[in-house]
Amino acid sequence: MGDIYGAERLIPVKSVQVAGVSFRNIGEAGLEWISDLKGHVVVPSILNPAGMDLRRWNNMGIDEEFASKQMKVIEAYERLGIFAACTCTPYQINSCLANRNDHLAWSESSAVSYANSVIGACTNREGGPSALAAALVGKTPLYGYHLDENRKPTHEIFVDMELNGSSDFGALGYLIGKIVKAGNPSIHLNKMPDTDELKALGAAMAASGSIALYYIKRITTSPSKYSGFNETISLDKKDIDSVFEKSVGLDADIVALGCPHCSHSELAQIGKMLEGKKICRDLWICTARQIAETNSDLVEKIERSGAKVICDTCMVVSPATDHYKKMITNSGKALVYLPTLCNVEAGLASMEECIRCATEE
Ligand code: F3S
């Protein structure tokens, strides 16, 4: 990788996040390759989501053959010393994995965006094998987002409306990714977003485009020297509304929240919205196992409605999504990937509307 990208040298990394975990994506060849590897990681390393809830896969309608192969993938990674937390939000479960100015080798695009833009760390978007290599040697080649010269803001974006909630920020990210494609946008907002909104924004931009770093005043520190923007873009309510319009008339057979994986605060909001209600169509809430375990009271409250809190996986990487045709979600990232990777029609709605859709005929 260093030779390909002209890197001068290798630099140490603080942590690694390894993708290529869902058996659906890697298949027999991937399983064989990982199983043959020998060695042990030398820095804290964590897995991206797998193709199923590792404990309650039965509950998702996953067949035994897939489950057995998926567990073999997990065991092979564990033999290398990688922590099988299986989440795209490693920063939510262990704040020691990444801090400001740390160099990392993370794989999952929304986690990469969050690390670069919100935490202030530096990481390229690693492929599965390059992340694994970084975990085994504790180093990565010095190129791309590890260098200040590639972190300069490229586009200036003005947003003329007040955005509220992850779905609004997902819609904004969806639009910016489509327009900017592969730059480092500097975004001017009317209000300061919270961390859930930032994770939704970065996830959507990385999916509809390939943006791994964005700037928001008082959140991301910009490099000291940069000379102007390539382009200035203005977006307003009608642009944001156009993303939601895709949902009109979508008669969903499932509603799914938690792309990227839900935080404690999102579980609390969902629990409150579901109080005293029963679902009338399938409702998945995807989160990291550690978040579910430390919030077991919220999980119980949510599941009392008939909804499923699903750990270790998500609506995009699990083959269980194949059982459905139309999905409503509050995620701009899932809005991009469900039709393209899963052949499922998708619509975007706010968390409140998602819960209403799941609980009202
Ligand atoms: Fe995470 Fe799956 Fe979305 S890996 S960012 S929940 S597509």
Task: Describe what you observe in this structure.
- The protein is built from 13 helices and 13 strands.
- With 361 residues, it is α/β, with parallel strands linked by helices.
- The strands form 4 sheets. A 5-stranded parallel sheet has the order 11-10-9-12-13, with helices on both faces.
- Helix 6 packs across helix 8 (237-244), helix 6 packs across helix 12 and helix 9 runs parallel beside helix 11.
- It is globular, with a radius of gyration of 20 Å.
- The structure holds FE3-S4 cluster (F3S).
Portion of residues within helices: 25-40%
Q: What is the straight-line distance between the termini?
A: 53 Å
Q: How is the biggest beta sheet arranged?
A: 5 strands, parallel
The CATH top-level class label of the largest domain: Alpha Beta
Point out poorly predicted stretches: none
Can you tell me the CATH topology of the largest domain? Aconitase, domain 3
Q: How many structurally independent domains?
A: 3
Structural class per helix/strand content? Answer: alpha/beta
Strand order, sheet with most strands: 11-10-9-12-13
Ligands and ions found: FE3-S4 cluster
Radius of gyration: 20 Å
Mean pLDDT: 96
Number-wise, the strands total 13
Instruction: Using the alpha-carbon principal axes, give the shape.
Output: globular
